[in-house]
Write a structure and sequence with these properties.
Layout: H1 3-13, H2 35-53, H3 63-93, H4 98-118, H5 121-128, H6 130-139, H7 147-157, H8 163-176, H9 178-190, E1 196-197, E2 203-204, H10 208-214, H11 220-236, H12 238-258, H13 264-269, H14 276-288, H15 290-303, E3 309-310, H16 311-314, H17 328-338, H18 344-355, E4 359-360, E5 372-374, E6 382-384, H19 391-413, H20 423-426, H21 428-444, H22 448-484, H23 491-506, E7 510-511, H24 533-551, H25 554-565, H26 572-579, H27 587-612
Helix pairs in contact: 2-3, 2-4, 3-4, 9-12, 12-22, 14-22, 15-27, 17-19, 19-21, 21-22, 21-24, 22-23, 22-24, 22-27, 24-27, 25-26
Bound molecules: zinc ion.
Length: 613
Amino acid sequence: MTSEKAKEERTHSLPERSDIPEKYTWRLEDLFETAKDWEKALKTVESTGEDLASRKGSLKASAEGLLEGLSLADTLEKLMERVFVYAHMLSHQDTRNQKAQSMAARAVSLAVKTGELTSFIIPEIIEAGRERIESFITERKDLEIYRFLLEDIFRQSAHRLSAEEETLLSGAGEIAHAPENIYSMLTNADMSFPEVEDGKGHLHPLTQELYGTYIISPDRTLRKNSFKVLHGVFGSYKNTLSGTLNATLRSSAYFARSRKYSSTLEAALAPDNIPPEVYHGLIETVEKHLYLLHRYTSIKKRALDLESIHMHDMYFPLAPEPKPCISYEDACQMVAESLKPLGDEYVSLLMEGFESRWIDVLENRGKRGGAYSWGSYGIHPYVLLNYNGTFRDVFTIAHEMGHALHKAFTDKKQPFVYSGHSIFTAEVASTTNEIILHEALQEQATSREEKLYFANALLEQIRTTFFRQTLFAEFELTVHNMIAEGEAPTAETFCSLWRSLNEKYYGPELEIDNELEYEWARIPHFYSPFYVYQYATGYAAATALSRNIREGGTQEVKRYLEFLESGKSDYPVILLRRAGVDMTSSEPVKEVAALFEKTLENLEGILRESTES
Ligand SMILES: [Zn+2]
């Protein structure tokens, strides 16, 4: 059966939303009781926006004006968020619902308008000047909660230009999105892939989405063919894709220079105030531990009994997923049980989430795929799942509830203005939960199959989230540096750099196919400069925190919960330091290496046992 057909049949076997028992659906009424209330809120957003716009000039005039302006902006954004989140979650329940689609579209355009209306605030604060704003804070104590926000505006103000120059830059900013748009059009809309043959000679359609399932298939021929064909097609566009990547490298260098940053890296790290040594330190420390990735490659080669190991073998799991049908209730129990080290407060909030319909659990016809956590300030968080009863789904619950509880703890403690999370810390709480669950399940595993499955799953997670993303980060740093030094990298430059990085990371046992050289052309994140390293640093922070929690006492747990409560009230590196992890040191990265090594030894033990028996 072709997978398109399989997908179609699967869709037909799915229940309609109305047939899903209520307890497995989220309570959107907690956001808005009725659609009418949503419409009313939409009107309030519009009138509040007009009210705020009429205060232009008053924020810099007096302490009272500043306080009123900032709190009105909070009120506006808070309600806007609720309008936006509700409409989108409603449409995700069943994407065929036209009314929900149009509500979501209206929310998007209102959000754009709201963004435009509030855009005068920062320039006006900068215009008032640091001293005057400081005197306002002294005068009106209620302004104290905005201190960090205001200080951060002045920290970055050295890189703001005159109003006229800012207008020119924002116009150029729209044009600068062109390479990314072209890349996305070419690779998502225009590019097509020929069918690929499996080991039995059957043909399968290939898309980028299907590639993800073929590359973990036990059928080696299918893995090999889909890897070669997919990357081969990208390779046939290598000059165009090197052109779009070059354009992005050059435009980000231009913007960094215009804003008087010393490099693109410095400009990319500035909004979260991340010291560049965090980036360089990650690459340097990972480099010192690459022997572990080499060892993994070689163990995998032996375990799979291969004459030579290729990249398309690296993704293949050493054991199939055991017990494929875990009830949702059991899954929640497993997650809650494993997270007990986080303390009663955490676990009881987790249970509240399970029991109070925060979660949309099951698949239904038209429901959006995947999983996420989302929500609106002041209301409990929400989680969307497509639960199917696999171990992978249990990990997804732990992950998404990690996000949800991070939000719940933050909302409880922080005012709206600091209720978000920076991208640098965003994946820390979710990954911490996953690692804790992992260690618990690994310890409980009894059969060889289970032990092998868990060891392999953790090693693959570390390989793809930590080592692979650091390889990406090193590639980015090298090519951005080339631009800064006036070089003009070509497709050949990118290909040979990609090959040499893979040689360095995976070691002498990996047999490099020529098609691997084109993989750089397939990575959309390279169009957001210096983004991917945060997957690796987030993983490192989570590894260190989960060990602190498991091995530490109440003090460690308390510091972790304080981190969850801290939201965006300070810079990520500072918040993590308070939680007990210093991201400017090499320690967190070394912790991942230690966890990887421990799991490798574990894997070797399981493999030895099975050859002996
Ligand atoms: Zn996540």
